[in-house]
Structure formats: structure tokens, C-alpha cells
Amino acid sequence: MTIRFAVPHIEEARVWYTIFLQKDPDFIPHAGFLEWEVVSGCWLQLAESAETEYRNGPLRLGVRDLEAERARVMEQLDIQDFDIYTRSGVPVKWATFPDPWGNQLGYFEYLDKEKEQNRINQLK
């Protein structure tokens, strides 16, 4: 699986996404294009583009502690405070926020920690 986000300045986006994902790009196939393997077989691609409206996504990543990740990105990436949502019958809580170019990103956290650990074990 891949998801591609368009950004106007690839080097600025590289710095921002390296902090967000907590690692450098895994693959740089050519100028103006970066790729991170988020989990095995699932890639986030950034493509430099002159498009004026981006608003791709959302791409939400699973985390163990949604509140801690919210605090981290608010501090390290100067993200404005954003809400965390839950809904009856939905087994996760989630949050969404924009990158500097309007692409929608976020996190989700399993409410059932046993289910969360089972899912983590499947991905190993």
C-alpha cells in the first residue's frame, strides 16, 4: 500500500516528516520524491508539486499513547492543539491534524490493550 502527499518544498517537508515519523526516509528514488516505509509493505510518499491545494488524507498511524503523541507533535512540530475523539461501538480513539501544507495526518489508539498487543504481535 502507498499513500502520496503533495508538498510544495520537498526539503522542508523532509525535515517535518522525519520528526513526525521519527526516522529518515527509507528510499529516495529521485529528486523531489521521498518515501518512508511506515510498516512492512505500507509506504508514505512525498512528492514535490506546484499544486496549490493539497488536503490529502487522512493518514492515521496507530500509537500506544495518543495523548503522549499529541503532546510530542504539538511541542516538536508546533502543531496547534487538536481534539481526540471516541464513539460508542468504535474500538479506537483517534485524532487528526494538518501538516503545514494541509495534508491530513493523525493517530489512533486501541481502547482494548489486549487487542492492541495482539495487533502489534501480528505486525512483527
Structure, described:
- The structure is a single chain.
- With 124 residues, the chain is an alpha/beta fold.
- The chain has one domain: 2,3-Dihydroxybiphenyl 1,2-Dioxygenase, domain 1 (Roll).
- Helix content is 27%, strand content 34%.
- It is built from three helices and seven strands, in the order E-H-E-E-E-E-H-E-E-H.
- It has helices at residues 10-21, 66-76, 113-123, and strands at residues 2-7, 27-30, 33-39, 42-48, 59-62, 92-98, 104-110.
- The strands form two sheets. It has a four-stranded mixed sheet, with helices on one face.
- Strand 3 (33-39) and strand 4 form a beta hairpin.
- The longest helix is centred in the N-terminal third of the chain and has 12 residues, at 10-21.
- The chain is globular, with a radius of gyration of 15 Å.
- The mean pLDDT is 91.
Average pLDDT value?
A: 91
- N-to-C SSE series? EHEEEEHEEH
How many strand units? Answer: 7
CATH homologous group name? 2,3-Dihydroxybiphenyl 1,2-Dioxygenase, domain 1
Tell me the fraction of residues in β-strands, as a range.
25-35%
Tally the helices.
Answer: 3
Tally of discrete structural domains: 1
Low-confidence blocks of residues: none
CATH fold field value: 2,3-Dihydroxybiphenyl 1,2-Dioxygenase, domain 1
Radius of gyration: 15 Å
Q: What would you call the structural class? A: alpha/beta
Read across the widest sheet, the strand sequence of neighbours is 1-4-3-2
The description of the largest β-sheet is: 4 strands, mixed
Portion of residues within helices: 25-40%
CATH architecture grouping: Roll
Span between termini: 17 Å
Shape descriptor: globular
CATH class: Alpha Beta
